Amino acid sequence: MKNYKVAVVGATGAVGLEMIRMLEIRNFPVGNIKFLASERSIGKKLKFRGEEISVELLTKNCDKDIDIALFSAGTAISKKFAPIFVNNGSFVIDNSNAWRMDKNVPLVVPEVNSHVLEKNKKLIANPNCSTIQMVVVLKPLHDFVKIKRVIVSTYQSVSGAGQKGKDELTEQIKAWVNGYKIPVANKFQHQIAFNLIPQIDIFMNNGYTKEEMKMTNETKKIIGDDSIKVSATCVRVPVFRSHSESVWIETEKPLSSVKAKKIFSKAKGIQLLDDPKNNRYPMPLFAENNQITFVGRIRSDISTNNNNALTFWIVSDNLLKGAALNAVQIAEVIIGNNFV
């Protein structure tokens, strides 16, 4: 089997570390790997397959023979460096928001639209974490009976804000447990411990946040149907890892909950967990460190007089399927298609 030269850009961040772990767990055919980051991480050692590898500085003069570069270093870094890697012949799979809505850049969730990947399109966008887990569940339903409208409320963990988000929740909980005054919020707009914050990212002119508009726009692009109407409310919750979503859909034709469960049970990347009699349904605790997207609480909407509306609950690890795992799966499609 051919081996590939891989670079992880932003290797020391929360998603970068998971990218490295996914490459190892999924036995990606890595012949040589480079860990690249900013100056503050130079010399730090990270393990890969039992070997300690030093983190190197990301520069414009990085190796020009890298086959695949996984980027998770933020929008500004991606805009500056991703084109350089592409011009040097590398496939770049970028986890930032820099290129997602660029009409010339594929926005990919392999279970949904791997067919848009091409050998000559070397810059590929990894979607937003909350969008990924939703479209994995929506696509098999949409293929069976067209989805007209989606209303989703997300319950997003603090790890979606990186290590600083996790640290802030930890510090606030420790302070409360020890009887100290809870520290003033820094990473989030308000105290996150024992609280919910109905704001992720900045507010737009239409009253929605940037995160909510990502879900609207990215869903249409990934599924390939601009007619789907999507309204999202994104909420930060005091959970360390894994995002949850309450989803309501309206379909063009009737779709029963029984049929939806059958569709889910056969779909790729999904595990149906729907046994309310035994209190079994998806929760963040089940999804953490799991490569599967869970769906449950599937039921027909009793507020309508037809069978054209369903509601269900989705949970997935935002650092894995929502980021690192999806990126590695894209890389697997690239090598599977002999694009590199």
The value of Rg in angstroms is: 20 Å
Distance between the termini: 13 Å
Poorly predicted runs of 5 or more residues? none
Biggest sheet character: 7 strands, mixed
Spatial strand order of the main sheet: 3-4-2-1-5-6-7
Q: Would you mind describing this structure in some detail?
A:
The chain is α/β, with parallel strands linked by helices and 340 residues long. The chain is 31% helix and 24% strand. It has helices at residues 14-25, 75-87, 110-113, 129-144, 163-177, 210-223, 257-266, 284-287, 320-336, and strands at 4-9, 30-37, 45-48, 51-57, 68-71, 91-94, 123-125, 147-156, 229-236, 243-251, 270-272, 293-300, 309-316. It has a 7-stranded mixed sheet, sandwiched between helices. Strands 9-8-10-13-12-11 form a 6-stranded mixed sheet. It is globular. The relative contact order is 0.15.
Question: What's a quick, concise take on this entry?
Answer:
The protein has nine helices and 13 strands. By secondary structure, the protein is α/β, with parallel strands linked by helices.
Feature tags:
340 residues; alpha/beta; Rossmann fold; Dihydrodipicolinate Reductase, domain 2; 2 domains; 9 helices
Topology:
Blueprint: E1 4-9, H1 14-25, E2 30-37, E3 45-48, E4 51-57, E5 68-71, H2 75-87, E6 91-94, H3 110-113, E7 123-125, H4 129-144, E8 147-156, H5 163-177, H6 210-223, E9 229-236, E10 243-251, H7 257-266, E11 270-272, H8 284-287, E12 293-300, E13 309-316, H9 320-336
Parallel strand pairs: 1-2, 1-5, 2-4, 5-6, 6-7, 8-9, 11-12
Antiparallel strand pairs: 3-4, 8-10, 10-13, 12-13
